Amino acid sequence: MESFIAGLEKAELHVHLEGSIEPETMVELDPSVTIEQVRNEYRYSDFAGFLRAYVWAGKRIATPGDYALITRRLLERLAAQNVRYAEINLSVGVMLWRKQDPARNFDAIVSAAGNSPVQVRWIFDAVRQFGTEHAFEVARLAAGRTDCGVVGFGTGGDEARGPIEWFEAVFDFARSSGLRILPHAGETEGPKSIWNAVRLGANRIGHGIRAAEDPELMAWLREHDVPLEVCISSNLATGAVKSIENHPVRRLFDAGVPIVLNTDDPAMFHTTLNREFALAATHFGFTSEELRQVAAAGFRYACPG
Ligand code: ADE
Ligand code: ZN
Question: How far is CA 285 from CA 144, 243, 263, in A?
C-alpha cells in the first residue's frame, strides 16, 4: 500500500505555507531557537494551543528571503511525494498584522516556486477574528494578483471568534474579482457554520468534518458537488476530533460527500500527504481503488485558472 500511495499522482489543495516549516528549517530562520524547542512548540492539546504555536511560527518568518526558503522546502517535499499540483494557502492576514509588505513577500514566494516541478496556485488567507475590514484588505491584495496565480480567497484562524456570516460582502467582492471562495468551516464549529459557508457561496470547505452530524447537509454537499478538504492528522492534533476512531472521514465518504485529503500544516501536525492517504487506508479501510478516486478528486476540485 505504501508504494502504491507513493506512486499515485496527487494534488494538495489545503496546505498552509506557514505551517510547513520543519524544525530544521525553523532553526535556520531563527538560530536562537533549538530543534528541541521547536518540537516542544509543535505540541498542543487543543485548538487554542495550536493557534498560539501557529503565531509563534509566523513570528519567525521575517523577510521575503525567509518566505522564499520555506516555499522551496515545502515544494521539495511535495515533489518527493509525487504531488503534481498544489494550492498553497498564504497567511496574508498574518503578514499585515506583522506590518510586513505582503507584495514583497509574495514576489519572493512566486519566484522561489518558479523552478518547481509542482504546478502551484495560491490562496490568500485572512485571519477571521481580525474582522471584516482586515479580510477586505486581504481580498483586495488577492484580487490584485490573479495574474500571478492567485486563485482563491480564504478565511482561517478561530472559527468561534470570527463567524463566517461576517464575510458575506468580502466573499461577494472576491468572487466578482475572479477568486474562488475557500473558507475554513465546520472544523471546530458545528454544521451551522458549514451551512452558512455554502449559503455565502463557498466553492470548497476547509475541513467541514462536522457535516457528518447533519445528514441533510451531507446530502446537500453531495448534490451540489461541494467538496470537503479533510485533514485527519490536523483534526487529531488540534483536538477537533477526539480520537482516530471518531474521525468521520469514512462516514462522509460513504455518504457520497465529495472529499479531498490534505495535510493542513504538515510540519506542525507531523504528517505528509502520503501519510494522510496511508491513514485512510489503515484506519478507515480505504481500498486502493478508493484512494485512487480521492487522489483524482484533488485534481477535479482544483480551482480553475
Ligand atoms: N491556519 C492554519 N491552519 C489552520 C486550521 N487548521 N484552522 C484554522 N486556521 C488555520
Ligand atoms: Zn487550514
Answer: 44, 16, 19
Which pTM value belongs to this model?
0.98
Residue 156 Cβ < 6 Å to ligand 1: yes
121 pLDDT exceeds 80?
yes
What is the reported pLDDT for 305? Answer: 74
Which one of the listed residues 187, 189, 229, 276 is annotated catalytic?
187
Ligand 2 centroid to Cα of residue 200, in Å, is: 19
Taking residues 9-33, report their average pLDDT: 98
Q: How many CB atoms lie within 10 A of CB 134?
A: 18
Strand order in the sheet with 150-156: 10-16, 83-90, 119-127, 150-156, 180-181
Give all domains of the chain, ordered by start, each with its CATH number: 2-300 (3.20.20.140)
User: Could you tell me the CA-to-CA distances from 171 to 121, 146, 199, 260, 285 in Å, in that order?
Assistant: 19, 15, 11, 22, 37
* CB-CB neighbours of 225 under 10 Å: 10
Q: What is the edge-to-edge ordering of all strands in the sheet holding 184-185?
A: 184-185, 205-207, 228-230, 259-261
Q: What is the pLDDT of residues 252-299, one digit of tens each?
A: 999 999 999 999 999 999 999 999 999 999 999 999 999 999 999 999
- Say whether 87 is catalytic: no
